[in-house]
Amino acid sequence: MPERRPRADAVRNREAVLAAADRLFARSDSPEHVSMADIAAEAGVGKGTLFRGFGDRTGLIQALYEARLDPIRRTVAEGPHPLGPGTPPVQRAAAVLDALLCFKLDHRHLSLALEEAATGSPYGAEHYDWWHGTLRGVLAEIPGFDGSDFAAHALLAAVRADLVDHLAGRRNIPRERLRADLATYTTKVLNSP
Amino acid sequence: MPERRPRADAVRNREAVLAAADRLFARSDSPEHVSMADIAAEAGVGKGTLFRGFGDRTGLIQALYEARLDPIRRTVAEGPHPLGPGTPPVQRAAAVLDALLCFKLDHRHLSLALEEAATGSPYGAEHYDWWHGTLRGVLAEIPGFDGSDFAAHALLAAVRADLVDHLAGRRNIPRERLRADLATYTTKVLNSP
DNA sequence: GAACCATACGGACCGTCGGTCCGTTTATGC
DNA sequence: GCATAAACGGACCGACGGTCCGTATGGTTC
């Protein structure tokens, strides 16, 4: 099959929609108050265009999240020290969790939107499987570390968007304090007998 | 003020509604597919009664959750070994987390419904604060343990309903395996240098 | 640049849901 | 019994996610 390229206006609109959604989520205090109609209006586009381009609300949010997170994902997969492969596993696992925490702090609204949108839970979204698989692999390289599968889930749960939002947003814990707390915690998990 | 007792039919209906909701959540695969109208119909009651009695959907689910969880909460607060006070802190923290995991396994649908209902996140529901405060207190009793506040959040995140549901439900990990995995993990956290 | 067609557009429209409102019924105290 | 406050229940409302189809437009070919 010849794999026709999409029309120029379709590409333009797709970008406009993602940008509009990003803006609206950042502006509003709770992602559920941002309706699909709002996003369409902000992007200067009909509602039909949203649903044609992204399938449904979850699809749109996932696409946006994926686009923003992709750089970090790449860095972890093939980037330089300390995120990339080639870093000793204990240090790398800590670096990955720290990077994830920072991302969720920097994109709090978006991350929140994603976890709310993914039907019921973030689990089952393919990007979660990727993070879990990667982290589990790193943990498994630590000598004498057992239970890496569950530990990977549990460590990722420690940086879930709603928890981060609760601590940073509602309780006003400063960024560096959170990073330090997370580092202390991960150290406990990673350097256990 | 004379503090009039509620009418008998109101009490009866309240029970009927809670029982109906419990049944419906247990039956359906996803809590969001259980509507307030469904619950009212199942309880043989008008929709108005639901909202008068519980305020809104979140209130109803919280009331139900609270009712089911209360026994465990009591046991932790004032019960016998190993959940109650008087147990050495490392052992007690592990026991509390195990009890919470078991509860979420036994009431998977209900727990899922709660986390979905609480606007945005389970944080901010007063019962979460109670668990966090309690666990933090136990952790703080462990000699040389620092970062108990964040650690309490992180450990509770490891037994969140949607994670438990993902592992036990979608991935079919057996109950005892999960309990063992959690125990291994908590041991790492609690017995760190 | 004209004509053709696949592709994309957009907003009226639909079903459902949480939540409200108010006329009606009923339990309770005297 | 009777009066009355309390509770009932279901018609009703506004909002939302998602669909549908007549219309517009970018791309291609001559």
Task: Please give a structural write-up.
- 2 copies of one chain form a homodimer.
- Chain A is mainly α.
- Chain A has 2 domains: 1-55, Arc Repressor Mutant, subunit A; 65-190.
- In chain A, 71% of the residues lie in helices and 0% in strands.
- The first copy, chain A, is built from 10 helices and no strands.
- The first copy, chain A, has helices at residues 8-27, 36-43, 47-54, 57-78, 89-106, 108-117, 126-140, 148-157, 161-170, 175-190.
- In chain A, helix 1 (8-27) crosses helix 6 (108-117), helix 5 runs antiparallel to helix 7 (126-140) and helix 5 runs antiparallel to helix 10 (175-190).
- The mean pLDDT of chain A is 93.
- The A-B interface holds A 30-32, 112, 116, 119-124, 146-147, 149-151, 153-154, 157-158, 160, 162-163, 165-167, 170, 178, 181-182, 184-185, 187-189, 191-193 and B 30-32, 112, 116, 119-124, 146-147, 149-151, 153-154, 157-158, 160, 162-163, 165-167, 170, 178, 181-182, 184-185, 187-189, 191-193.
- Chain A binds a DNA duplex (30 and 30 nucleotides) through residues 4, 6-10, 13, 35-37, 40, 45-53, 56-57.
